[in-house]
Amino acid sequence: MQGVDPDSPDAFMHIFLNLMALLPWAALFWWSVVFVVVGAVLGWWRGRLVEGIVWAVVLGPLGWIVVLGRSRPKPRPEPPPLPRRR
Question: Which stretches are transmembrane (predicted)?
Answer without folding.
Answer: 21-46, 52-69
